[in-house]
Amino acid sequence: MGIKDRLKTGIQKNLNLRYIKRLLGIIALKPVLYAYGKTFPSASDKYLNIFTIESLKKAYSDNNRPIGYGSLFIPHELFHALGITPFLPEVMAGFTAGLGLAPQTLKEASSHWYSQDLCTFHRSASGAAELDLFPRPDYIITSNLACDAAQKSFYIHSVKHNIEKNFYLIDVPYRYSEESIRYLAAQIKNICTDICSKTGKKPDISMFEETFELSNELRKWAIEVGSLRKNLADYPSHFNGLNFILPFHGLAGTREAVILYKEIYRDLKKYSDKQCKEISEKNKPAKRILWLHLKPYYRNEIFDILYRENCRVVFEEINHVYWQELDYKKPFESLARKMLSNFLGGSIDNRIGVILKAAHDYKADGAILFSHWGCRQSNGGARIIKDSLKKINIPTLVLDGDCVDQNNSSQGQVKTRLQGFIEILNS
Amino acid sequence: MTQDIRDTDNFDKTRKKINDIKFFFGNTLTSENKKAAIGWFCTYTPEELIIAGGFVPVRIFGRKKIIKSESYFPINFCPYIKSGWESLLADADNLKAIIFTNSCDGMRRFFDIASKYLDGIPSYLLDVPHLKNRDSRDFFTGNMDDMKKFIEKLKGEKINEEEIENAVKLINKKRKLLKEFSNIFYKSPDLIEIPAYYKVMELSMISDPEIFLDDLEKYLGFIGSIDKTSTKNGISLQPDQRNSPSIMIIGNFIAEDKLWEMLSKMNLKLASEDLCTSNRYFVKQVVTGDNKDLMESIAERYLNKPQCMRMADPGSKLAEIENVIIKNHIKGVIFITLKFCDNMLYSFPLLKQRLNNMGIPVLYLDIEYNNFSEGQIKTRVQAFLEML
Questions:
Q1: What is this model's ipTM?
Q2: Rounded CA gap, B370 and B79, in Å?
Q3: With contact defined as beta carbons under 8 Å apart, do B248 and B324 qualify?
Q4: Do B25 and B47 have their domain in common?
Q5: CATH code (residue B322)
Q6: Residue B12's Cα: distance from chain center in Å?
Q7: Is A164 near chain B, with CB under 8 Å?
Q8: Residue B7 confidence (pLDDT)
């Protein structure tokens, strides 16, 4: 049994906060962590795992207070600038799936009256919170951007920990306009001022300088990665662009995220250079897939099947860099603009624009929309997305499934539909 | 006891008459709209602006069976939206335009679908903030101004201040009379039956307000006349004395005739409600005067009316419910939601916890729309009532 399986089994058998803290205490020790990092096939995977563990260690350690729960689409630069350690329950729900804990967390959520019709990212995170597997938050910042569930489930976390006064909802307007920016920037400023008054920190725009510089650096490297991928004909089998959600969002504004994206770039560049030498030997170019929405985070065959069948995911919409550079001299306005630029907010046209451009830039042969159970904002747009791609002759597979709950997804059916789609691409 | 002294025959006759909504609201039901109609869905839509533009605001109830709609939306999607879309696919030609709100993820996608696939009918989405403070009121005022421009385009000319003022007066009057009606309903559940009550509510949202108000005034006048002659007829509008538990219904867009029929035959007293199809629609007036900006006053009313679970502050919503329960001596709550409504579903864990602390039992029901499975729901409600 390898180290990863041992970790998984250990946590499955000892599902409690004390064990998680103990485990993180051991694995986050530098020699152990780097030995663990070496078990990954690429530098980017290595750093992804190292930085994830380090960030969890920080969040679970009582020495790094205050801790802030943040939903995925808030600008996490806010936490970093304020010296708050972020913790992302939705990302943790992905880990519950990967570690095989979701059956327990989902069961716990059901026993607390979370309906099975709700998104399993939020349900599993709520179940984990009810099982007291998460560190206690000092602050919670969430938004209504793209997701009704976040604002509600995060409020429940605040009640559980009796910190309703430290719960902040960022109300993101529907349209991108100067009025919207003003309304949003004022909210972010108020949150910042309120937290500063509670932490004793002096509200000062200089605290955003370093964070924004690092965030801009991440942005630059993420764009570089995206540009490189436009012409990448093949990929290393272990690469999966859907694994970088935590650094892309939660670590935006940190040195770690910059290092990681540089490593992703180097890994792919190395592969690309090698590919240039070998490409002439290949007879059949791979089919290029544009991936929409997320993926199952438990063990599944989808990406193995695609790889075997000579299909490569050439871009994932979630990796689209949608925001402009941040300006620390106008911190609140910058963060407001970042939120309002998110293509998952507002009209579906924002998302369609990104998808069609990506389909063109990445020369997609087909698109797969993973239709995660309970995600109304994404699935509700499936018909329009499919029709829009059809107009430019790109077939779309809407693959029904669940990112977190393995039992809510029929592997056999997924396999059959995937194979049928691949046949269409090859015909 | 009041009931004992009643002349049963006379009482039954009067009750039958009062519940004959077709009779009292004949004009509302039969009048053909002379003005063009604008469709709306959510109670955060300021009807005042539609009326000021010279149009009739008609809420889309989506009574059509879901067939074509299935190919536009996923299986686990709000059934009201699907039914609404089915209705638009069939009858949208009757509308001049449709106004959506960004109430929830589902509604946003509904607006997208309507904008893409409904040819020739203009759609507009009103951005309603989730917060209730001065900044959000100002922001909402600006958004309503944008909606006004959309209506002005349909009208072909500007809407003036006087037109808005008149519309505010009209809708305020409707709210006032609906409130009076609901108070009578809560006080005298043996007189006004649940289906009749909700039928009037529905008519209030889908009819020309002037014609409806005319009928409603006459209807309330008739009910009032019974009150005045109560000793003669043995009928009174005094608090109901039956030994039925006082129930509160909390839900979203619940407009299920079969449910109302079913509840009306059960031993319960509907003493309060928190629904998109009743109090969230009519409670709270637009307060004008004191040199207040009219649009700002309208915005204030909508942001501070009994809130939908979509708003940012579940804590104040729970407090609002708690107060209603105490004030109305509620003995049990029926929480009824259309399936796949995230805002409602997420409100339940906290509500359940709060009600447990108060010692108030709650029954959780989730239902489809236009596809009510009576047998199963009936058994569960009966068991709940027996427990009370």
A1: 0.96
A2: 9
A3: yes
A4: no
A5: 3.40.50.11900
A6: 28
A7: yes
A8: 61
Question: Considering only CB atoms, which chain A residues are within 8 Å of B314?
Answer: 152, 155
- Would strands B269-274 and B123-126 be described as parallel, antiparallel, or unpaired? unpaired
Three-state DSSP state, B344: helix
Q: Is A390 on the interface with B (CB under 8 A)?
A: no
Task: State residue A253's pLDDT score.
Answer: 97
Q: Which DSSP letter does residue A171 get?
A: -
Give the separation between CA B101 and CA B42, rounded to whole angstroms: 7
Q: What is the pLDDT of residue A282?
A: 55
CB contact under 8 A, A114 and B349: yes
B227-254: pLDDT as tens digits: 555 545 555 555 555 678 999 999 999 9
Please indicate, yes or no, if residue B165 is contained in any of the structural domains.
Answer: no
Q: Say whether B77 and A152 touch across the interface (CB within 8 A).
A: no
Q: Is the dihedral of CA B346, B325, B374, B21 positive or negative?
A: negative
B135, burial (CB in 10 Å: exposed 0-12, middle 13-18, buried 19+): middle
Q: Note whether B127 contacts A: Cβ–Cβ < 8 A.
A: yes
Q: Please name the amino acid found at residue B387.
A: M
pLDDT, position A203: 79
CATH number of the domain encompassing residue B85: 3.40.50.11890
| Cross-chain CB nearest to B106 (options A173, A179, A376) | A376
3-state secondary structure of B363: strand
Which stretch of DSSP H or E encloses residue A27?
Answer: helix A17-27
Contact B348 A115 (CB under 8 A): yes
Chain A contacts in chain B segment 150-189 (CB below 8 A): none
Contact A113 B108 (CB under 8 A): no
Question: Which residue positions in chain B have pLDDT lower than 70?
Answer: 1-8, 227-242
Total residues found in chain A within this entry: 427
How do the pLDDT tens digits run along chain A, 427 residues long? 677 788 889 999 999 999 999 999 999 999 999 898 889 989 999 999 999 999 999 999 988 789 999 999 999 999 999 999 999 999 999 999 999 999 999 999 999 999 999 999 999 999 999 999 999 999 999 999 999 999 999 999 999 999 999 999 999 999 999 999 999 999 999 999 999 999 998 878 888 999 999 999 999 999 999 999 998 988 888 899 999 999 999 999 999 999 999 999 999 999 888 776 665 555 678 999 999 999 999 999 999 999 999 999 999 999 999 999 999 999 999 999 999 999 999 999 999 999 999 999 999 999 999 999 999 999 999 999 999 999 999 999 999 999 999 999 888 999 999 999 999 999 9
3-class DSSP assignment, residue A408: helix
pLDDT of residue B3: 40
Quote the CA–CA distance of A377 and B4 in Å, as a whole number.
57
* Rounded Cα–Cα distance for residues A212 and A325 (Å): 8
* Among candidates A117, A187, A348 on the partner chain, residue whose Cβ is nearest the Cβ of B76: A117
Residues with Cβ within 8 Å of A92's Cβ and at least 6 positions away in sequence, in order, are A125, A128, A134
CA distances from B370 to A37, B64, B184, B254, B317 (A): 56, 8, 28, 10, 28
Q: Would A3-199 and A207-328+347-426 be classified into the same CATH topology? A: yes
Burial class of residue B172 in the structure, from the number of CB atoms within 10 Å of its CB (0-12 exposed, 13-18 middle, 19+ buried): middle
B5 and B110 belong to one structural domain: no
CA distance B42 to A25: 51
Burial class (CB within 10 angstroms; exposed 0-12, middle 13-18, buried 19+) of A383 = buried
Could you list the beta-strand ranges (E) of chain B: 37-40, 56-59, 95-101, 123-126, 246-251, 269-274, 332-338, 362-367
Please state the domain count of chain B: 3
Regarding the domain delimited by A207-328+347-426, which CATH topology (the fold level of the hierarchy) does it fall under? Rossmann fold (3.40.50)
Residue B298 and residue B335 in one domain: yes
